[in-house]
Amino acid sequence: MTLTYELSEIDRIAVQILSEVKSKTLLFYGEMGAGKTTLIKALVKALGASDLASSPTFSLVNEYQTDQGKIFHFDFYRIEDEMEALDMGIEDYLNLDTWKFIEWPQKIEKLLDEDVQKLEVLTLNEGTRMLKFC
Q1: Which residues does 12 contact at the CB level (< 8 Å), separation at least 6?
Q2: One GO cellular component from the entry (predicted)?
Q3: Residues 6+ apart with CB under 8 A from 57
Protein backbone atom coordinates (compact mmCIF):
# COMPACT_ATOMS: atom_id res chain seq x y z
CA MET A 1 0.00 0.00 0.00
CA THR A 2 1.13 3.55 -0.69
CA LEU A 3 -0.13 6.77 0.89
CA THR A 4 0.63 10.26 -0.38
CA TYR A 5 0.00 13.05 2.11
CA GLU A 6 0.61 16.70 2.82
CA LEU A 7 2.38 17.46 6.09
CA SER A 8 -0.77 19.27 7.23
CA GLU A 9 -2.57 15.88 7.08
CA ILE A 10 -0.05 14.00 9.20
CA ASP A 11 -2.33 13.49 12.23
CA ARG A 12 -4.97 11.83 10.06
CA ILE A 13 -2.33 9.73 8.31
CA ALA A 14 -0.95 8.57 11.68
CA VAL A 15 -4.36 7.25 12.71
CA GLN A 16 -4.72 5.49 9.37
CA ILE A 17 -1.27 3.89 9.68
CA LEU A 18 -2.04 2.55 13.15
CA SER A 19 -5.23 0.94 11.86
CA GLU A 20 -3.52 -0.75 8.91
CA VAL A 21 -0.13 -2.02 10.12
CA LYS A 22 0.36 -5.73 10.73
CA SER A 23 2.77 -5.38 13.66
CA LYS A 24 3.50 -3.15 16.64
CA THR A 25 7.13 -2.97 15.50
CA LEU A 26 7.38 -0.35 12.76
CA LEU A 27 10.62 0.11 10.83
CA PHE A 28 11.09 3.51 9.21
CA TYR A 29 13.29 3.77 6.13
CA GLY A 30 14.06 6.99 4.28
CA GLU A 31 16.73 9.56 3.63
CA MET A 32 17.81 12.08 6.25
CA GLY A 33 15.14 14.76 6.40
CA ALA A 34 12.43 12.65 4.74
CA GLY A 35 10.10 13.05 7.72
CA LYS A 36 10.52 9.82 9.67
CA THR A 37 10.71 11.55 13.06
CA THR A 38 7.85 13.89 12.18
CA LEU A 39 5.67 10.91 11.31
CA ILE A 40 6.67 9.09 14.51
CA LYS A 41 5.76 12.18 16.54
CA ALA A 42 2.26 12.04 15.01
CA LEU A 43 1.99 8.30 15.74
CA VAL A 44 3.00 8.82 19.38
CA LYS A 45 0.40 11.58 19.66
CA ALA A 46 -2.28 9.39 18.01
CA LEU A 47 -1.58 6.65 20.56
CA GLY A 48 -2.31 9.11 23.36
CA ALA A 49 1.11 9.81 24.83
CA SER A 50 1.11 12.77 27.16
CA ASP A 51 4.69 13.75 26.23
CA LEU A 52 5.68 15.27 22.92
CA ALA A 53 7.91 12.92 20.95
CA SER A 54 11.40 13.99 19.98
CA SER A 55 14.30 12.41 18.17
CA PRO A 56 16.39 9.97 20.23
CA THR A 57 19.42 10.43 17.95
CA PHE A 58 21.86 10.78 20.85
CA SER A 59 20.12 8.66 23.49
CA LEU A 60 19.19 5.88 20.97
CA VAL A 61 15.78 5.36 22.60
CA ASN A 62 12.98 7.53 23.94
CA GLU A 63 10.14 6.14 26.01
CA TYR A 64 6.59 7.50 26.06
CA GLN A 65 3.75 6.48 28.35
CA THR A 66 0.13 6.04 27.27
CA ASP A 67 -2.95 4.64 29.01
CA GLN A 68 -2.35 1.41 27.05
CA GLY A 69 1.34 1.10 27.96
CA LYS A 70 4.73 2.29 26.80
CA ILE A 71 5.93 3.28 23.35
CA PHE A 72 9.60 3.02 22.44
CA HIS A 73 11.17 5.18 19.71
CA PHE A 74 14.64 4.16 18.53
CA ASP A 75 17.04 6.02 16.26
CA PHE A 76 20.07 3.97 15.21
CA TYR A 77 21.56 6.54 12.82
CA ARG A 78 24.67 7.06 14.96
CA ILE A 79 25.51 3.45 15.83
CA GLU A 80 28.47 1.81 14.14
CA ASP A 81 27.40 -1.83 14.42
CA GLU A 82 24.78 -4.16 15.89
CA MET A 83 26.86 -4.68 19.05
CA GLU A 84 25.95 -1.16 20.17
CA ALA A 85 22.26 -2.04 19.92
CA LEU A 86 22.84 -5.29 21.79
CA ASP A 87 24.77 -3.42 24.49
CA MET A 88 21.81 -1.09 25.07
CA GLY A 89 19.47 -4.08 25.43
CA ILE A 90 17.61 -4.00 22.12
CA GLU A 91 16.63 -7.67 22.44
CA ASP A 92 14.75 -6.96 25.66
CA TYR A 93 12.86 -4.10 24.02
CA LEU A 94 12.02 -6.16 20.93
CA ASN A 95 10.49 -8.90 23.08
CA LEU A 96 8.02 -6.50 24.70
CA ASP A 97 4.41 -6.48 23.47
CA THR A 98 4.26 -2.73 22.95
CA TRP A 99 4.64 -0.23 20.14
CA LYS A 100 8.20 0.15 18.87
CA PHE A 101 9.15 2.71 16.22
CA ILE A 102 12.64 2.22 14.77
CA GLU A 103 14.48 4.73 12.58
CA TRP A 104 17.49 3.51 10.58
CA PRO A 105 16.59 -0.19 11.11
CA GLN A 106 19.01 -1.25 8.38
CA LYS A 107 21.74 -0.86 11.01
CA ILE A 108 20.24 -3.70 13.10
CA GLU A 109 18.39 -5.83 10.53
CA LYS A 110 19.96 -9.12 11.65
CA LEU A 111 18.48 -8.59 15.12
CA LEU A 112 14.90 -8.07 13.93
CA ASP A 113 12.13 -10.66 13.64
CA GLU A 114 10.08 -11.11 10.51
CA ASP A 115 7.00 -9.91 12.41
CA VAL A 116 7.59 -6.23 11.66
CA GLN A 117 6.04 -3.60 9.43
CA LYS A 118 8.45 -1.83 7.11
CA LEU A 119 7.57 1.71 6.06
CA GLU A 120 9.51 3.85 3.61
CA VAL A 121 9.10 7.63 3.77
CA LEU A 122 9.88 9.49 0.54
CA THR A 123 9.97 13.25 -0.04
CA LEU A 124 7.98 14.28 -3.11
CA ASN A 125 8.39 18.01 -2.48
CA GLU A 126 8.75 20.35 0.49
CA GLY A 127 5.26 19.69 1.88
CA THR A 128 4.35 16.32 0.39
CA ARG A 129 5.46 12.83 1.40
CA MET A 130 4.84 9.34 0.11
CA LEU A 131 4.66 6.43 2.52
CA LYS A 132 5.16 2.90 1.21
CA PHE A 133 4.15 -0.11 3.26
CA CYS A 134 6.79 -2.73 2.40
Answers
A1: 5
A2: cytoplasm
A3: 75, 77, 78
- pLDDT for res 131: 97
pLDDT for 101 equals 97
pLDDT digits (tens, 9 = 90+) for 25-60: 999 999 999 999 999 999 999 999 977 666 665 578
Rounded CA-CA distance 7/129 in Å is 7
Indicate the average pLDDT of the chain: 93
CA gap 99, 73 in Å, rounded: 8
Per-residue pLDDT at 124 exceeds 80: yes
The amino acid occupying position 120 is: E
pLDDT at position 56 is 65
